[in-house]
Amino acid sequence: MNSRLPFKTYLYFLAQSVNLTTAVMSVSMAALVGASLAPEPSLSTVPYGFQFLLVMLITYPASKLMSKIGRKKSFLLATVPLAASGIVGFLAVQERAFSLLVISHSLLGTYIAFANFNRFAATDNISVDLKPRAISLVVAGGVIAAVIGPMLTTYFKDFGSLQAFSACYAVFTGLAVVSLILNLLVKEPIDSLTHLHEPNHSQFRSSVVRATLENKTVLLAIAVAAIGYGIMNLLMIQSSMHMSTNMCLHFSDVSHAIQWHVLAMFAPSFFTGILIQTLGLRVVIFAGIFLLIFTSLINILAGSDYDALMASLIALGLGWNFTYVGGSALLTRELENLPGSVRVQGINDLGISIMATLGAFAPAFLLSWLGWNGTNILAIGICLTLLVFSGLILKRNPTAQR
């Protein structure tokens, strides 16, 4: 049996690096640019909110398009909104046009909705034993993004005589060209489209959704990845708010802690797939949930100590990695060679994007309503429920033991 990952996996790793670089750049500058262009402060995060909204709205249609025309053509088409996002974003900042900024981030969200399928595309037509390693490697593209994203934003923030950040948006157009080249280099197997193709009629679509809802292991895979993502977003954003507002730490200290968190999210992906092959999916998924619980326990017990918060953010990153990669790997194994798998992947990523969006918008509300400790207690309760559900479903499932 061939134990080497195919060349296309490394191309998707680089393509995902581009995807996550755009995400890192947008999160670092969207609120600042939005605040400078918004007609009133309360609207400053609207452009970034529309980015998440478009990811939610486009994810499932993107999976349907892939089932019709294949991964490669879909990814190539997705470079168009990315390039347009860069052009429109540049004009938005230069012309001080808030509406154009909203459009720019909406276009970026459209691209991200497609590019998030890189991890599944890397598993097409490879052996089931290699799938966790392929997913893990593609997710590891975030390591490059964690380094390159801040570097590009810093370098192009004040570029020449241009308005601040306008050149950063122009970089998206250059990244679109890189993404285009990488996807052109991917050699899509002749039988790939046949593998993805699904009958286009309502009865088939209904059967796919019904099969998804009736398969508890598929539901668990979606829940693990989605809830892990939501908890990560919630605690990451609220941690930065807690450090800035309650602890009055300098922005550089907060940024340093978040940078370590981002590295902890993606760096383990270089070996998460090997851990799954060695220890099994069940162990990795459980470890991820326990790490999320451990994060909240640290926050409750030592939430006013900077070093403790740094440790909790690192644990949070690791927990996200194990639940995200573990949930994705469980889904691909459960859907192996089944018709409708691409649509189920779309349902999966739709669930993830919904939870990620809730995790992004809820921190301020929960911090004012429940407080720092209350939010972490809520997170523990959610994770314990997920842990019990996981134990019940995976107890007798041989898929999770491999």
TrEMBL record:
> What InterPro entries has UniProt attached to this entry?
MFS, MFS_dom, MFS_trans_sf
Q: Which Gene3D superfamilies match?
A: MFS general substrate transporter like domains
Q: Which GO terms describe its molecular function?
A: transmembrane transporter activity
What range(s) does the Major facilitator superfamily (MFS) profile domain occupy?
Answer: 209-402
Extract the PANTHER family matched here.
MAJOR FACILITATOR SUPERFAMILY PROTEIN, MFS PERMEASE
Bilayer-crossing regions: 12-33, 45-63, 75-93, 99-122, 134-156, 162-186, 218-237, 257-276, 283-302, 308-331, 352-371, 377-394
Q: Which Pfam families match?
A: MFS_1
The molecule here is called MFS transporter
* Xref: PROSITE patterns: MFS
Keywords (alphabetical) are: Membrane, Transmembrane, Transmembrane helix
